[in-house]
Amino acid sequence: MNRNIFPYRIAFMILCFFVLMPIVKAAGPKMPLKCVAPAYLKPGDKVALISPSYYCSMETACQAADTLRCWGYVPVIGPNVGKQYLEHYAGTVDERLADLRWALADPDIKAILCLRGGYGTLQLVEDLSLKEFAASPKWLIGYSDITTLLSMDACAGVMGIHGVMGCNIAKPDSTGQSCSLLRDLLKGQAPRYELPAHKENILGMATGTLVGGNLATLVPLIGTQADAIGKSDIILFVEEVEETHHNIDRLFNILKMSGVLAHCKGVVLGDFTDCENDVGYESTEAMLREFIAPYNIPLLCGFPAGHEKLNLPLVIGAPVIMDVRADGATLTFDIPGEQQMVRTERLSVPMTDEMAHNISNVFLKHPFLMIFLILGIISGMACFSEKKSKSAKGQY
Fold it and tell me: What is the mean pLDDT of the chain?
């Protein structure tokens, strides 16, 4: 060997190592997420109310603040809440970014409750850093367009909550199960969900880190610093609203071609609200089952989370165990705190003013229905009274 060229070969090999190593890492297996659970809230803790997407009125923000006070917390409304930019945005990008940064940086704020979704959080990703989310871990709460921030939070190593927002707890039905379970979770009572069987379920058990949210919001994050679904050993949760089946098919094909489905340990399907069936499948779940089945992983359908009235909280970034059986399924969070059993089929949707109005309209248009209802109640009461009387006489 020519000793004069030996140092150059060594230098060339070192150079190749540093050039090729990032490429090899990128092509190799993705690293799993390791997220910490922020501290649970105590009475008197501060909760920030911000609107990083679409406009939310100050009136709604104040109503949400009232509910938080009833829960025992001190609400702090973001400086730019109530502002409106163009037709829909809750202020300019800089204003929305400033409120989010303020809430993330303040160590006295223990949770961030987003007021509304819509669209706009994607505009913030490029200007944010993961360090801002990790510096002072706190519960970030929201769904829909807030999926972007929950995903970025998970990439920073912090758990967040996919659940109801300020505009939801501001309503008269803020005592419903979706809100009360969020309140319980913030206090340290983690739900352990039991769900009924679903005909499109794929049986099996899996463990992994729960990530996901709104499908159309998740997919554009692939390849960005907010790409939590690009990690390994994930349990993928998705829900959607007002998308056609062919658009959902397109988005799932992207998940398939980008390798996301290949490193899923299991999939949880939430609500698919007002999604037009324009390709002929029996249901959205039936269509998506065809994507999942080749991977031999469990599929849990019908989890009540998304854009319906019942929107149960999920801890994004948390280790979960999903067990899908012929007689039903369970979803368990392996996080600090107490376990609270929640049987989803027993939960009811709270009566809202809109629902009451619709029911009253039905009876006004069809008064004979009210007559039949009253006669049925009278008949039932008479039957019960008769049985009670016979029972007292020893005939039953």
Answer: 88
Residues 262 and 364 in one domain: no
- One domain for residues 309 and 366: no
Distance CA 347, CA 302 (A): 14
Q: What is the side-by-side strand order in the sheet with 109-114?
A: 74-77, 46-50, 109-114, 139-142, 160-162, 314-316
Give the 3-state secondary structure percentages of the chain, helix then strand then coil, rounded to 5: 40, 25, 35
* pLDDT tens digits, one per residue of 73-104: 999 999 999 999 999 999 999 999 999 999 99
DSSP lists the bridge partners of residue 209 as 234, 319
Indicate if 143 and 283 belong to the same structural domain.
yes
CB half-sphere exposure, 10, CA atoms < 13 A: 6
Instruction: Decide if 209 is inside a domain.
Output: yes
The torsion angles phi and psi of 50, rounded to 5 degrees, stand at -135, 165
Please classify residue 341 by burial: count the beta carbons closer than 10 Å to its beta carbon, then call 0-12 exposed, 13-18 middle and 19+ buried.
exposed
3-state secondary structure of 107: coil
Give me the domain span that covers residue 376. Answer: 353-382
246 & 274 share domain: yes
Same structural domain, 221 and 359: no
Structural domain tally of the chain? 2
H or E stretch including 170? none
Residue 77: how many CA atoms within 13 Å on its side-chain side? 18
Do 331 and 281 share a structural domain? yes
pLDDT in tens, 107-163: 999 999 999 999 999 999 999 999 999 999 999 999 999 999 999 999 999 999 999
Note if the pTM is more than 0.85: no
Report the alpha-carbon distance of residue 348 to residue 129 in Å, rounded. Answer: 40
Task: Look up the CATH number of the domain holding residue 252.
Answer: 3.40.50.10740
150/329 Cα distance (integer angstroms):
25
Question: Which residues are paired to 113 by β-bridges?
Answer: 49, 141
Do residues 49 and 42 lie in contact, with contact meaning Cβ atoms separated by under 8 Å? no
pLDDT for residue 94: 98
Shared-domain flag, residues 358 and 298: no
Task: Reduce the DSSP state of residue 53 to 3 states and report it.
Answer: coil
Task: Work out the pLDDT band at 4, boundaries 50, 70, 90.
Answer: low
How far, in Å, CA of 281 to CA of 245, rounded?
A: 8
Amino acid identity for residue 376 in this structure: G
- Looking at the structure, tell me whether residues 59 and 147 fall in a common domain: yes
